[in-house]
């Protein structure tokens, strides 16, 4: 059980954690109630998926299989598509994360290739993609998981650096925080959701356990551990930087501080460790749809290379890391972690209707739709009006 808990924690603690202080800053302290609500709802839907998988282990090996079990072939296609979309959007956010941090470390950097000018963000995005390129040649899940674990270690280094900056720099822990900002509630909720997504991996974790009766305990412990870590980062970052909190907490770190330098350079390693693990399931889904004669190692590498090129192009022209993370939360996570689990539960447990549990499912669905629609609206509104 310990290994499964560790795997669950490692999966959920991702780069979305870097936006939590910002999410709290745009919502105010009332955002903590939203954070707790999001954590509870996502934990509840994870338990619903576990309930649906119970007794169907042989039929449900993946998130797509869950869709097939509930809604047939069309359900499998939709489930696989929304799961892959979440992972792919997250992979794009990794390139944005690196480019913004490099731009903070080395501002006004420009490179000329003939008449082509690559400045700042685009240059760093292309450089990051080139560094990521060798990771595409490995499809070994064990190796990729180990590399991803190093990325999680890097995130905890950043957390320690944040607390170090708060205790030793001129910022300190100052009371510059607001109680509530209603206009930031929707985007804040979307950013919270990015930290509790990842339900598409639950069938894999469930089937990896020898004693599946312990899975409920695993989920509760995992969500509790993640929530504590997230709260430390969100509250600590907001107390330290207040209304000046940047969309990425690393961009608040003073570059001259030793702890800040360690954290900033560590933040450059995290995407390199996470990208292959995120893109691998997307590539696998594409490969599964190919005729048998095309399922060769070279074809697999070409598919990953094309995905990297598309990822790089989108990252070059997408303006803000936090905006993409909010889109991931309000669109992909709402679908994979809120709506889909409830729909599967209602379909597979169709006899349980018009009772307290049915009302609960309906409430989660309404919450998910409202969060998704309002979150997407305000993200698009900010993008159109040039706000980050």
From TrEMBL:
Q: What is its main location?
A: membrane
Q: How does it sit in the membrane?
A: Multi-pass membrane protein
An annotated GO cellular component: vacuolar membrane
**Record's superkingdom?**
Eukaryota
Q: Which UniProt keywords apply?
A: Amino-acid transport, Membrane, Transmembrane, Transmembrane helix, Transport
InterPro entries per UniProt: AA_transpt_TM
Q: Which Pfam families match?
A: Aa_trans
Where is this protein found? Answer: Membrane
tRNA-binding keyword on record? no
Under the GO molecular function aspect, what terms does this record hold? L-amino acid transmembrane transporter activity
Give residue ranges for domain Amino acid transporter transmembrane. 12-380
Q: Where are the transmembrane segments?
A: 7-24, 30-49, 77-98, 144-165, 185-206, 218-242, 298-321, 327-346, 358-380
- The name this protein goes by in its record: Amino acid transporter transmembrane domain-containing protein
State the organism of origin: Coffea canephora (Robusta coffee)
């Amino acid at each position: 059980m310990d290994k499964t808990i560790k795997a669950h924690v490692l999966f959920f603690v991702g780069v979305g954690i870097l936006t939590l202080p910002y999410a709290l800053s745009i919502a105010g302290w009332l955002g903590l109630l939203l954070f707790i609500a999001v954590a509870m709802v996502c934990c509840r839907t994870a338990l619903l998926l576990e309930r649906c998988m119970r007794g169907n282990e042989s039929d449900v090996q993946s998130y797509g299989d869950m869709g097939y079990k509930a809604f047939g072939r069309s359900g499998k296609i939709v489930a696989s598509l929304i799961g892959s979309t979440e992972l792919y959007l997250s992979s794009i956010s990794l390139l944005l994360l690196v480019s913004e941090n490099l731009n903070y470390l080395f501002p006004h950097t420009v490179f000329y290739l003939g008449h082509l000018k690559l400045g700042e963000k685009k240059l760093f995005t292309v450089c990051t993609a080139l560094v990521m390129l060798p990771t595409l040649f490995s499809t070994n899940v064990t190796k990729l998981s180990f590399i991803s674990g190093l990325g999680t270690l890097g995130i905890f280094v950043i957390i320690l650096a944040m607390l170090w900056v708060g205790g030793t720099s001129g910022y300190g822990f100052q009371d510059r925080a607001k109680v509530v900002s209603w206009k930031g509630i929707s985007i804040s909720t979307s950013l919270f959701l990015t930290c509790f997504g990842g339900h598409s991996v639950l069938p894999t974790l469930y089937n990896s356990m020898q004693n599946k009766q312990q899975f409920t305990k695993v989920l509760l412990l995992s969500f509790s551990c993640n929530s504590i870590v997230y709260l430390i980062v969100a509250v600590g970052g907001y107390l330290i930087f207040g209304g000046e909190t940047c969309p990425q907490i690393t961009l608040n770190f003073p570059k001259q501080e030793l702890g800040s330098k360690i954290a900033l350079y560590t933040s450059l390693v995290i995407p390199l460790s996470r990208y292959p693990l995120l893109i691998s399931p997307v590539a696998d889904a594409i490969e599964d749809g190919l005729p048998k004669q095309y399922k060769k190692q070279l074809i697999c590498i070409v598919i990953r290379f094309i995905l990297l090129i598309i990822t790089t192009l989108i990252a070059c022209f997408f303006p803000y890391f936090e905006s993409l993370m909010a889109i991931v939360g309000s669109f992909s996570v709402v679908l994979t972690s809120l709506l889909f689990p409830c729909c599967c539960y209602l379909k597979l447990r169709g006899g349980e209707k018009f009772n307290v549990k049915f009302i609960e499912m309906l409430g989660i669905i309404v919450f998910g739709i409202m969060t998704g629609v309002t979150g997407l609206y305000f993200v698009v509104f900010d993008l159109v009006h040039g706000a980050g």
